[in-house]
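Example record for the data management plan.
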Amino acid sequence: MWSVRLLDKPFNAKVAYDGHPTLFTIKLYHGGEFTKFPDVQYIDGSVNYVDMVDIDEFSIHELDVIMKGFRYGVPPVIYYHIFVPGGDFHFGLKPLGNDDDLQTFAQYVCDHKIMRVYIEHGETKLLTYSMNPKLVRNVTIVQMDEIDENDDNENPTTEVHNASVKTVDITQELVSGKEEIDVSTCWINTV
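Corresponding structural encoding:
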């Protein structure tokens, strides 16, 4: 059974988990928030360690129980993010919100006995929950300047005049610091 470690208590994960490949520690960052991309940081939060977690019994529900122990109630929305060991902070954060995410998380536990989990409360500033796991780098944006609609009940038609087409590398748009791309008058098709 897992337990929250007292902050001043020494703990050697390598020794404690030797011979126990499914056990690990969660280094839990909570009560703070992420700054916006591209300079992503976790600020104004606390750090606690949850030891003796067994990945074979671990679930998102169990993480909710841990959070309740820190007096975070429900129903506030909580977003869980894992830091992929060996990754960088900007692109190494992945969502931890469903069984598929948990399987991704579990694959690291055998080799990494301290797993970093970051908590956001209320809303997320990261794109991890809304991004498709298969990254689409290029999109085609078709801007329609004029639309003529014929609302004939039997044969409705739509004609587009003066359409312009632009293909952009969406990754470059995000890296350049743009928080949003205006597509209010655009159709987007993946390339």
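Summary line stored alongside the record: Residues 138-190 form one domain.
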